[in-house]
Amino acid sequence: MATGILFAVLTGISWIWVGVVVSYAARNRVNIPYIQLFQTLTGILISVIVLCTMGMLMKDAPELSARTKWITACSMIAFGILNYFMFLAMGAAMRRGPNGIVWAVVQAGILFPFLMGILVFHVEPTPSRIGGMLLIVGSVILFGLGKETKAAGNAPETRKNCWYLFALLGMLLCGLNQCCANLPSYLNNGESVGSVYRACLSQVGMLCGWLIGVAATRTLSRPEFRPGEFRKILFFAISLNAVGLTANYLLFYNALDFLAKAGAGSLGYPLVVSSCVVGFFLYSAIFLREKSGFFQKSGCILGIAGIVIICL
Fold first, then answer.
1. Are the CB atoms for 286 and 312 separated by under 8 Å?
2. Largest CA distance in the chain
3. SS3 letters for 104-115?
4. Which tens digit of pLDDT belongs to each residue from 252-266?
5. Which end of the chain has fewer CB atoms < 10 Å from its terminal CB, N or C?
């Protein structure tokens, strides 16, 4: 279980870069859908190459039932689709509101996989797990209760633009996609489905999300980028894959599997997200110079305390 906790916290630290990219793109009007498109296409290519060269496609496939394979495939593709639209909702909220608080509100979706583990898969709700989870949820609530401020950069005032509605939509999508990502770890021999394969399927799902978005808005046309914008899109796409695929291949899915094996599968996402939220809060305060009040500082302390208590 200690390995699973360590991998989860390291994954959360790596996810800070996702928040940094979405925050910068939202504040500087860099095209987020095209960042996701190029990230997805290059991610699929890299994953296919890794799968073919290392022979990791459906590892130990003879021991896996057709049910396990199909549930894993469907849940990971659904994860990718939901993740795509979560990014859009979060980007809309960050353009209108304080980035650190938006990130924290969206990540409140950690409650969904935690409840799924306890209610559906009968994960034991020990006092330390319940206490740690309550502290983590409390920390996210405190982040959201902070005094409204102007968004970073030159964005309009937050109250005027309903940023919280977009943040709540992002939270709902975040919770659902976390449930989808966590589901294969609870299946019989689900850990035998390689992490590279799962990462590849999630990228396929994000591509499906982009296509759904294009079909819904009928915006499939040659994009017109501002000077220097295309280079930024490529840089962000490549950097997101460098950080994200490394974390997915080595840390994230292994963390979920290790914790599920130890009977603590419901703690995977709370550990990842709480470490990420605290880290992004510090980034917003230091680099974006977003002012933090009593509630935000208290939320940061509660988040760290929740991680420590869960580990006891």
1. no
2. 57
3. HHHHHHHHHHHH
4. 888 888 888 877 777
5. C
